[in-house]
Amino acid sequence: MSKIRVMLAEDHTIMREGTREFIQREPDMEVVAEAADGEAAVNLAAQFKPDVIVMDIRMPKLNGIEATTQIKQRFPRVAILILTAYDTDQYIFALLEAGAAGYLLKGVRAQELIDAIRAVYAGESVLHPVIASRVIRRAMSPTPETKPAPPLSDREMEILRLAARGISNKDIAEKIFLSPRTVQVHLGNVFSKLGVASRTEAVLFGLKRGWLHLEDLP
Amino acid sequence: MTEHSEIAGIIRSGDFKPEPPARFWKQYRFWIIVILFAIAVLLHYPQQLIGISQSSLFTFLGTARFSAERVFFLIPVSYASFVFGLRGGATALVLALAVMLPRLIWMTTAQPDAFLETGFIIALGLLMALWLESMRREQKRRENSVEALQITRQEVQQYLQALENSQKALETVNAIGLVVSQSLDLQMVLETTAERVREVMDLDVSLVFLANKQTGELELRAWRGVSEEFVAGLKGLKIGEGFNGRVAASGQPLVVANPAGDSRLTREVVKQEGIFTQLIVPLKSREQVVGTLTVAERYARSFSEDEIDLLTAIGRQVGIAIENSRLYQQERAFAGEQKDMQEKLRFYLQQVTRAQEEERKRIAQELHDDTIQNMVLLMRQIDRFATSAGYLTPQQSLFLEELRQRISTVSDEVRRFTQDLRPSILDDLGLLPTLEWLAADVTKNFDIAVVASTTGEPRRFSPDTELNLFRIAQEALRNVWKHSHATMAQIKVDFKPGKMTMTVSDNGRGFEVVNQVDELTRSGKLGLVGMQERAQLIGAKTTVKSVPGKGTTVAVELLDLLR
Predict the structure, then answer these.
(1) Is the pTM value of this prediction over 0.90?
(2) Which CATH homologous superfamily contains domain A4-137?
(3) Closest to A214 (Cβ–Cβ): which among B384, B436, B488?
């Protein structure tokens, strides 16, 4: 069986050497090339045609996102595994869009990295657990373009609007002539219908969907 | 008997160490083994050596068993392997076999029994030696892992300490930068500098001198930790005179190890005040020295490169701020030249803004390249140690796991700090994703629902423009969470042909809008001034609309007709 040919793209020398050491210890893997910046990564990928590229985001000359985009355009079959210190959502989605097969954080254990290389080589995608849950949440969250009718009843919507203005349950109750207990129940229904856990999340949801406006007056 | 007391004496004299570097024959335990061996040999050949028959010897010793003397060999053998390891045990065993062989072959009457017994003793001796050896190795390994663990722990502790220090220093540069760049009151700039510098560098004394070009003198204008006599005693210090005077003249930082014997010292009050080590940096604006900043201690200490760099960086920021506020004061004095002065003032504010951005970028870069990477390496070292150290008790494993967790937490914090200084996504992905990130970040940290949205056909601007637009949005949101009591906020970016508008609005309590920069400065709304400055830097226009009780909207309009 031939070995998995791995290329490393990482500007921090000691970090790169450490990663190489992990990989070289595996009998079924070899490091065929190492790039210290994004431009070198694109060139070396063309020259060595690796199976898997382990790529950092912040690199001189060309960052990991652009390097990933360029490499995937020219060599769609290479699997790119991002290994970075950043867990910022915007990076994750930009890279998954660019065609990265996996996204790991640098604190990852050696064995997890090795397993991830094997997995992306086999065509699977690998996400750090923390990141996976965010990707799912993002996939489920609404975009401004999709504005379906709110699943909330008129009363619930009214209460959400008042809550969005920072009014306490007790004051809401007084305003609309209900008991605080009933307001609480309504708000609980709003939370569970929207799948959120707090007032702020519910307001954010409403704001994103365009149900709520800053100009709304109680 | 004599040997015994001698050994006891040696033990008492404290010479009893597990692994002395002396050669083996210099160790008393080697001689114990030799004596034990000699006794064993004596017991084995009593007739030949001292002329007593074996049976009478054993009757004398009260032992009935005939061949107990063979068993006795086990004592020096096992002691040898205990003291010198497998090699010592094996050597003793071979010697014992050699000693036993003559009797076994030529003298014994019951040969098969004797063979069996010798074989048994050799096997037992060998087993004993092997067992003791494995015990020794285990012990050694345990000592090694404990020692390595100790070293790792110390390293981590040192590292965390260093990190804490550097983080504190960075925060100070930022804090000082913020206050001095937003304040136009000269004395306040100087007092803030004196206060914060002493705090962050953890020193007794801080002094801020200003150069007076007309009189050619250095005036002490703000101080902490010194007496009134000291302040009075430094009156009329000439530029070029004494330590501070020299720094003012040369523009180079200076470390004074001990002023007492130093010929450059001109003021006796320094000695009377008990001031010892000093670090002096120039306050510079446009390469002109406008004053000096001194930190000092009343005992001997050294200043690291980092500390000198930090104070120099602070000196740069303070220098610009001083020039800035001087101009402002002049501006107020000469109302006729107001317009011209305002432009100059603007120029300096822009300089401060640029200097600050550069500094932030540099610090963020450094934190990412060194600090975060090193912490990742540290985690890898711990992983490697945990898998290769061999013996670790559950407590030790738990300790390592906690250590790893702690490093991970600290590095998350550093990363967050880096992003606050300068979000890397702004450089890598551009303005719009960064605004989304900012909205989510404020939502998470301040419990205000913030949404970022875009309309029209998005396009990119120069890095400088995008950075300033981002800072304006960041500042506007800072006002939202600091002052507005809002529950919702929106960042909207609208692209039209030739024009981009960014608005940040909230549903908070709002405020009375004042339009003059002067007014804003006086009423403490410096954030708004900063936004206007930044907008002007990129040729954009800001408008602030706010009605008490009905929220605030900050709008930035950027015409890009060139496209």
Answers:
(1) no
(2) Response regulator (3.40.50.2300)
(3) B488
